[in-house]
Amino acid sequence: MQDRITVSEHTSSAWKLILFASLFDTVVFFILFLLISDPLTVSIFRFLAFIGFAGIVLAGLQLQGRTKKIEIDCDEEQIKITYYLSSQGNQEELFELGTVDQITKQPAPRIWNLIPRKDSSKLQISFTDTSNKLSLLRFKGKDLYVTHSDAQKVVSFFKSRVSSS
Predict the structure, then answer these.
(1) Mean pLDDT across the chain, nearest whole number?
(2) Which CATH number is 4-11+67-164 given?
């Protein structure tokens, strides 16, 4: 039986759309800001250009970040999740196999409650001693999302490990 599975973090393709829309917004409102002389309209266009610039920075940071490789290792008693940036392990999490109730796949939440992440899934874990569901994959306080196929692989991996123990 397979004791280790490796998946990669998935960055939503919506960030590219946000980047280009923000770039267009910034250029258009900056040009309007330069061409108009009315003080109220100038300040509104300058503010809208700044909002577009902030969107460029946020989307650029999301796209620039290196993707993480996630290795899930399972033995008879523990589940160990290791997060890798480049080739070195940066963070590890340990879960006792006996306390894990179930792992479920959820659709990833929308970006800013507006833009759907249709191509990403979020994995949630629940334990036998509580009814709360927590995010399974978290790196430095940030939820990580995987593709639908990787999420299904992880869920089946855990189901096979829990049923065999």
Answers:
(1) 85
(2) 2.30.29
